[in-house]
Structure formats: C-alpha cells, structure tokens
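hiii, so i know i said id send this last week but things got crazy w the move. better late than never?? heres the sequnce for the chain we talked about at the cafe, plus the structure i predicted for it. fair warning i was half asleep when i ran it
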Amino acid sequence: MSNREGNLEAPTRHPLDWKSDDFYDEASLHKEMERVFDICHGCRRCVSLCGSFPTLFDLVDNSSTMEVDGVDKKDYGKVVDQCYLCDVCYMTKCPYTPPHPWNLDFPHLMLRAKAVKFRKGEVALRDKFLSNTDGLGTFAGIPIVTQTVNAVNKTRAARGMLENVMGVDRKAWLPDFATRKFRSGAADSRPYAVKNGTLTPGKVAVYSTCYINYNEPGVGHDLLAILDHNEIPYVLLEKEACCGMPKLEQGDLAGVEAKKNINIPHLAKLAREGYAILTPIPSCTLMYKQELPLMFPRDQDVQTVRDAMWDPFEYFVQRNRDGLLKRDFKQALGTVSYHVPCHLRVQNMGKKTVEALQLVPDTKLNVVERCSGHAGTFGVKKEFHATAMKIGKPVFKAMANDEPDYISSDCQLAGHHIEQGMEEVGLKKAQLAHPLALLRKAYGI
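okay and structure toks below
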C-alpha cells in the first residue's frame, strides 16, 4: 500500500468493466468494498457530502472492533442506498483517485453494488417505475389526460395513496406533465448561414431530454429562442429516448445499453456532420460526456458523441470568445441566486453559466456551489426525502442571501427542490427561473 498523501495529478477514470463475470461476483465486490471503506474510514474527508459517508462511519464506530472488519457485510447496502452518484466525492474531495496507487473510485464502486443488487432482482418496483422516464412520458402531450393527471397528483388523497403504494413521499415536489411535448411544439430553425468559430461549430443539434420534452418544454423553447436570436441554425434529433441516467442510478446497466442503442446512431450521425450537440439538462450531458464513454470505451460512435456534446452555457461562452455571441442585452436581471448542480460541477469545465450571466449588465450573482440533495429520484422517495431536505438546508439558506429577485439552477429538479426547501424553512420567496429563461429575458426576446 502506498503511503503517499493525495494526488499531484488530475483525477482520471478507468473504463467500467461491467460485462465481466467478476463485476457481478458478490464476494469480489465485498472484498473491494472493504478495501475502499477502510481507506474512507481512515480519511473521513467526505463526511459532509451525502448520507453514504456518515452511514459508513457510524457502522464502523458502532462495530465491535471500531474498524471496517467489524462491520457486517450485510450492512454494506445501507451505504450503497445513500449514494445517488453525484460524483462530487470523486471529482472534488477524494485524494486517492487514480492515478494514485490506491485507485479509489467510490461512485463507480457504488454503481457496481447497485448493478449487483439489480441483477439479483432486489430493486423495488417503485424504483423501476420512476426510472422509466419514457414510459412516464406517455402521460404528456394529451391535454385532457395530462390536466387530469396533474390535478389528481396535487390532491392529498392521491399523494397519500402514492406514498402508501409506491413509496413516493407525499411532501416531495413532483413535476407536472406538459400538455404539449417540446418536440411536438418546437419551432423550425430559420435558414441562417453556418458561422463556425475557432472554438465552436456554427450549427447546433438539440437533444431535448425527457424532462424538457415531457415536463417543462418552456426551457427547451428558451434555448431555441436564444439560438435563433444569435442566428445559429439548429435541428432536433430525428428520434431520441432517455439518456439512461435514471436507469444507471438503479444499477440497470442493460437498460442503459438499450437506451444507448437508440440514441447513439442518431447523435453520432449529427456529430460527424459537424453539429455541436446541446443538452439542457446537466445529468444528460454528463451521461454522454462521461458515463457512456466509460461503459463503452471501444465504441467509436460513443466517443464521437462525447466529443461533440456541449452544455448550452459552455457553448455560449465559447461562442462569445469566438466573437459570435450577441451581447445586445436589453434587460438587467437584478440579483440572481444561482445554484451549480453536482452533475455540472463534475464536468470540469468551470462555471460557464456564471460566465454567461455575468455578461448581462447590472446583474448581481450569488453563486452557491453545494449539493441541493434532490439527486433525481432520490429526493422524492419516502425513505430519503427528509435526508434530501437535510442535505439541501445549507443550500436553501445560502440561496436566500441578498434577497434575490430570482433563484436558478441548470438542474430544474434541483431548482424546484430548493424552492420547496426555502419555503419550508421560512425564507423569503423568490421567483424560480432556469438560467436559459434568464438569458432569454435579458435579451428581451
């Protein structure tokens, strides 16, 4: 074992060997978990990040030996259940990530444990249901059905039944379904000339994501309006499915592969044609930039898509550096409390949303860089909702600083979670607006 403290090099990631027999061997998994847990127990730097680490350290401290060898391996699952794969421990805290000789990748170890659990059939029907975003999306786009479902979901009786039957906490915020899907209502691009920059392609393909398509299409329309204002021609994917992140979080890796097989051919074609591919949800961007390339390291189409994938504000900032982004802002935004989502932080591209909003004159930003606790489906589950609110409490308080006119997050789920948390702790209400909506408002379009 190395006695070197920390890394002098940037963290790197090994491909995920998820199709090998050893990956699903429970004895091999427990051996690796014991090794990693022992390192974490000796460090404890990540204790404040999420529930996994306090759970682990409590198990160790309450064991007969007060070491990891005293923890019953049946309790390892308690640590796994608290991990929602935000990746922050790996990217911002852990001093033992590769290339350090200890080769510690806590999130991908938790993913392996979730995959073993899924293969054994130990994942609840509720979790499979919540991760099937394309299936849930069938409620969207049919006005009468959508309005009925949305109305029923707001009643105390329905929420009580949803909690008792499905384990969805009755207090947790749930998104409405859109009466018209984004892809159905998206405006066609006007025939602008393609203006490539040194840093940016001059044409864009929009991967709308499940959430934008089925729940909040307005965010997608904001993106298209900004592209149109900047005379950037765009297309939508001919066909798309969920990126697979909800299934990844359940350990359903075969389900991830099925989604990949639908999406990648369409995305790779556009990437080879020179499009910048924009995804307005950070988790989806991360899926194509990191998780799929690590799951399919020898799939050239996956790697091609990775290289063409952009966060919208990453693209706009680079477009500005190319001298090709319009800065004819007509309206100041006042004070904005902006939350940096975990899945944006770990893309290692800096605070591009902050850089873009700082271009708007007379706009003050209060930037909060800490996990909100929502984490996809984690925050709506009965057994974890209170934990999610507890994790988010420092964020709720920080977002209230300077009495903002707007609160905002690139992750709209986190934004609604923060809005709910601020209300529950009695903080002054501010209007929730996605950063794309704010940029559109600043343009006056």
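btw The radius of gyration is 22 Å. thought thatd interest u
miss u guys!!
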